[in-house]
Amino acid sequence: NAGVTQTPKFQVLKTGQSMTLQCAQDMNHEYMSWYRQDPGMGLRLIHYSVGAGITDQGEVPNGYNVSRSTTEDFPLRLLSAAPSQTSVYFCASSYGLAFGYEQYFGPGTRLTVT
Amino acid sequence: GDSVTQMEGPVTLSEEAFLTINCTYTATGYPSLFWYVQYPGEGLQLLLKATKADDKGSNKGFEATYRKETTSFHLEKGSVQVSDSAVYFCARETSGSRLTFGEGTQLTVNP
C-alpha cells in the first residue's frame, strides 16, 4: 500500500494563477480531507468529503474548490492564488472518526505564492 | 465552537528528562482524543488515542489519559530521547467526523 500520496511536493505560483493539488489513497477510505498548516496555528480544515460525490466546507474554505468523483482521489483546486495561501497543505484519509479511527496523512505540499 | 488548547512551545529538554505537554479541550459531547506527531519534513502520524473517559492511550513510551473532569489529555513520557524531537499536536473529534487540532508544540531533545 502506498497510503496517502500527494503531488507536487513543492510549488511556486504567481498571484492570480490557478493550480490543482493532487491527493490519492489506496486504503479504500470513505473519509478524506484537506488541511493547511501555518506557523503557530496548527492544522485548519479546508474541505472534507465523507464519500464519493459528497463534499463539505471546513474552517477555511474560501479560495479553494474540491470534488470527489472516486473513492481514491480528492484534488484541491486553488482558483486564483493569493499570497495568503502560502502554506503547507496536507491531505488525510480515514475510515471515519466516530469510533476513534486514525487519520492517515500524506507527506504534504509546500506552496509559495509570490 | 470546539477547540483544543496546547501548552505553548517550544520545549527543549535534555535526553532522559521527563516530558509533559499539556492539552485541554472544549467539553462539548464525548469526543475521541488524539495525539499526532510530525517529524521534520513529514506528514502527521498518529501517536496515541483515547475514545472515552478514563481511557489511557500509550505508544512508544508516551502516555495520555482522557480526563473528562478536567477536560484534559496531557501527553507524558518518562525519559525522552533525541529521536523524539518533533512537533506534537493534540486533536479532538468534532461534529461531522472532523478533527480540531491544537497549535502544536515543538519539542527539541538535546543529547
Order of helices and strands of chain A: EEEEEEEEEEE
Task: Enumerate how many helices of chain A there are, as a single number.
Answer: 0
Radius of gyration of chain A: 13 Å
Q: Describe the biggest sheet of chain A?
A: 7 strands, mixed
Q: Assembly state here?
A: heterodimer
Helix/strand/pairing category of chain A: mainly beta
> Termini of chain B, distance in Å?
41 Å
Can you put this structure into words, describing what you see?
The complex is a heterodimer of chains A (114) and B (111). Chain A is an all-beta fold. Chain A contains no helices and eleven strands. Chain A is globular and about 40 Å long. The mean pLDDT of chain A is 93. With 111 residues, chain B is mainly beta. Chain B contains no helices and twelve strands. Chain B has strands at 4-6, 11-14, 19-21, 23-25, 33-38, 44-50, 56-59, 62-65, 75-77, 86-94, 98-101, 105-110. The N and C termini of chain B lie far apart (41 Å). At the A-B interface, strand 4 and strand 5 of A face strand 6 and strand 11 of B.
Describe the structure using short key phrases.
heterodimer, A: 114 residues, mainly beta, 7-stranded mixed β-sheet, 4-stranded antiparallel β-sheet, 0% helix, 49% strand, globular, B: 111 residues, 6-stranded mixed β-sheet, 12 strands
